[in-house]
Amino acid sequence: MNGGLPGFHNAPASRAVVVAAALFSVPFGFRGRFLDLGLSYQNVYERLSIWRLITSLFAFSSTPELIFGAALLYYFRVFERQIGSNKYAVFIVFSTMVSVLLQILALGYLKDPSINPLTSGPYGLIFASYVPFFFDIPVSMRFRIFGLSLSDKSFVYLAGLQLLCSSGRCSVVPGVSGILAGLLYRLNTFGIRRLKFPEFVTSLFSRVSWPYSSNPYQGLPTTENDANISSHQVHQTQDAHAATQDPTESSIAALAATQDPTESSIAALVSMGFDRSSAVQALVMTNYDVNLASNILLEAQALQQ
């Protein structure tokens, strides 16, 4: 699975969620089968164990669930880069709260002992992220394995299916609740997509989670108009690099710059809505990797909004 640029650059909220999931899962989640950390009818409606809401949001109950869940959270950081950390933090809160509410309603309606307790962990956020993944992330590569037609998105779906079925019906309810929460967000229920947290909230995410170095791909233009915004920084970098080159190296660099990537790669990015010049630049910077180039263009587009 490739979620764009490596690491958590421009994704402090995603980083904070992954760190919280790991920290809660190590001391609590791996003992979750015995501690009964997930939501259940008795804990919610009879004992009113509100503290279980917190543990059920972050602590995975087994090592495989933590591995698949953390991998998906890491992949879906691309959405934070697209819409910005302020809006993505709203998406996290909304999808989590709505998912928990739907789980509580499902427990009260079904009263089924076989789903008590529900699987703990950030299932709401993970499966809510599959909604924009389905609608907004284009397929950039198709292939066949043993006669089956697959795409580069298939492995992300398979990882989600594994997580959804990891605990049977106990994990299906949180997963479906997360999907419904993602659909409500996409439908802009209560105008939620217009909301965003203040800047100090996202800066807080950056302080409480691990730092990450700056990324050389930041500010890549995605349209001809966007190119004017970041062209000054690009020219400054190019001038500084050219000053350290001798004439021979400059000639080689100029010759390399004139080499165009394959037309099929350019056409694939242009078909996604990017202009040709930005597509060429992204492909050159990523050694003609269409998947990585498309993610860079999406992230740069979000930065310019």
TrEMBL record:
Disordered: annotated span: 221-245
GO-annotated molecular function: serine-type endopeptidase activity
Localization: Membrane
Segments passing through the bilayer: 12-30, 50-76, 88-110, 122-143
Topology class, membrane: Multi-pass membrane protein
Gene3D superfamilies: DNA helicase RuvA subunit, C-terminal domain, Rhomboid-like
Boundaries of every UBA domain copy: 260-300
Keywords annotated in UniProt: Membrane, Transmembrane, Transmembrane helix
InterPro entries the record matches: Peptidase_S54_rhomboid_dom, Rhomboid-like_sf, UBA, UBA-like_sf
Regions annotated as coiled coil: none
Major location category of this protein: membrane
One cellular-component annotation, GO: membrane
Family label: Belongs to the peptidase S54 family.
PANTHER family per UniProt: OS01G0806000 PROTEIN (PTHR43066:SF20), RHOMBOID-RELATED PROTEIN (PTHR43066)
Name of the protein this chain belongs to: UBA domain-containing protein
